[in-house]
């Protein structure tokens, strides 16, 4: 063996021989090809059973009601009973205004209501007096007619002078006129009270409505929370003079939240209302999963409702893939365990394996939001007005006794 041959490594010789061996090369190619086929098969199975039945986006954000609290009357702030981040219950007093002027107007309205009741009572008594006058005039008429009837035979027998009989005829005419006048006066007296009792008289109802308005205005100097939630964006300050409609703070209920997931238009082909959704948030990471369902798809793309919508009809048009918001309802039980905040980002995965549901939402069967905290104010106003009416009616009954 020469020195040059001995200098060549044995491994190099073996690799050269393998490279020259067609069988080994074919086996290597088959192995590589099998690996690629297996990878493609695995990818196809993953796509068919998993990826094709899911639509995912991380362009999703937590949404919720943001209830702007404002004053319904003008006034000066004398107390602020809550602050940002604090929890408030529906009906809880949050802000108080100076109620001096409202109390004065309420007292005036109460006095006007009492006066209206007494005036109707007076009209009722006047009508009763007019009825008594009619009865008296009827007695006078019957007496005059009876006197005339007794003297007419005497006139025929020339036992009575014609002048006396004429005076009696005049007395009958005067009594009839007096009766007619009394009836007209009684009718006029009853024109404003007939058909209804005192409490339902139009004058009393008008005064009652004015009192109710004054009562409600006085109660509105105490501003209450319309819903249960957390206070945010408090801008009202002590001593500030506020106007009706001026926003004082915002209340955000952290219950009944939802997600607006902005899917690309080519992702909406199989998304349907009612499909289950899995959600993760950056706040809790992958350790906490939320479960919801699709409750509706937006009526337009985000660009349509933007402040400056795109003008695609112009010559410099460029095609851009649009996104449509998909509304997803969350489970309140999961929200109670892991609270979220409005505006947080989320990652949404919709299960589209069942795409036979509707695309358009049905007509709403219940209100999206409602409150009953203001109903009590009207009921209290009616109760107080009824109390004033009864007090003035009872005084009339006591005086008659």
TrEMBL record:
Places the protein is found: Cell envelope
Residues in Multidrug export protein EmrA/FarA alpha-helical hairpin domain copies: 100-220
Keywords: Coiled coil, Membrane, Transmembrane, Transmembrane helix
Highest taxon above the source species: Bacteria
Chief localisation class: other
Domain p-hydroxybenzoic acid efflux pump subunit AaeA-like beta-barrel intervals: 258-350
Chain ranges passing through the membrane: 28-50
Statement: the UniProt record of this protein carries the keyword Repeat: no
Pfam families: Beta-barrel_AAEA, HH_EMRA
Membrane listed as a keyword: yes
Coiled-coil stretches noted in the UniProt entry, renumbered to this chain: 165-192
PANTHER family the record matches: MEMBRANE FUSION SUBUNIT OF EMRAB-TOLC MULTIDRUG EFFLUX PUMP, MULTIDRUG EXPORT PROTEIN EMRA-RELATED
Identification of the protein by name: Efflux RND transporter periplasmic adaptor subunit
Organism phylogeny: Bacteria, Pseudomonadati, Pseudomonadota, Gammaproteobacteria, Lysobacterales
């Amino acid at each position: 063996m020469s020195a040059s041959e001995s200098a060549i490594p044995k491994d190099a010789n073996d690799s050269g021989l393998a490279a020259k061996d067609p069988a080994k090369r074919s086996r290597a190619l088959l192995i590589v090809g099998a690996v690629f086929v297996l990878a493609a098969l695995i990818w196809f199975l993953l796509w068919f059973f998993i990826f094709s039945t899911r639509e995912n986006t991380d362009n999703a954000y937590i949404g919720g009601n943001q209830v702007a609290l404002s004053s319904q009357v003008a006034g000066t702030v004398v107390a602020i009973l809550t602050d940002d981040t604090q929890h408030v219950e529906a009906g809880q007093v949050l802000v108080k205004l100076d109620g001096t002027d409202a109390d004065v107007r309420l007292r005036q309205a109460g006095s006007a209501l009492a006066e209206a009741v007494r005036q109707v009572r007076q009209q009722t008594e006047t009508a009763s007096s007019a009825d008594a006058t009619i009865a008296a005039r009827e007695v006078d008429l019957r007496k005059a007619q009876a006197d005339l009837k007794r003297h007419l035979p005497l006139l025929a027998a020339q036992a009575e002078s014609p002048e006396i009989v004429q005076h009696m005829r005049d007395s009958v005419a005067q009594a009839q006129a007096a009766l007619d006048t009394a009836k007209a006066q009684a009718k006029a007296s009853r024109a404003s009270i007939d058909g209804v009792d005192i409490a339902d008289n139009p004058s009393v109802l008008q005064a009652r409505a004015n009192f109710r308005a004054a009562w409600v205005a006085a109660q509105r100097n105490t501003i209450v929370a319309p819903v249960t939630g957390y206070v945010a964006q408090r801008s009202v300050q002590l001593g500030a003079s506020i106007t009706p409609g001026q926003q004082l703070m915002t209340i955000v209920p952290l219950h009944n939240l939802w997600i607006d997931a902005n899917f690309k238009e080519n992702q909406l082909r199989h998304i349907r209302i009612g499909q289950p959704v899995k959600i993760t948030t950056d706040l809790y990471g992958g350790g906490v999963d939320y479960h919801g369902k699709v409750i509706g798809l937006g009526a337009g793309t985000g660009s349509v409702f933007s402040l400056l919508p795109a003008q695609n009809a112009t010559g410099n048009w460029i095609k851009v893939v649009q996104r449509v918001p998909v509304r997803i309802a969350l489970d309140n039980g999961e929200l109670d365990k892991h609270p979220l905040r409005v505006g947080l980002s989320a990652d949404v995965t919709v299960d589209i394996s069942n795409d036979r549901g509707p695309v358009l939402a049905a007509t709403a069967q219940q209100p999206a939001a409602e409150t009953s905290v203001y109903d009590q104010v009207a009921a209290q106003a009616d109760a107080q007005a009824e109390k004033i009416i009864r007090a003035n009616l009872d005084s009339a009954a006591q005086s008659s006794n």
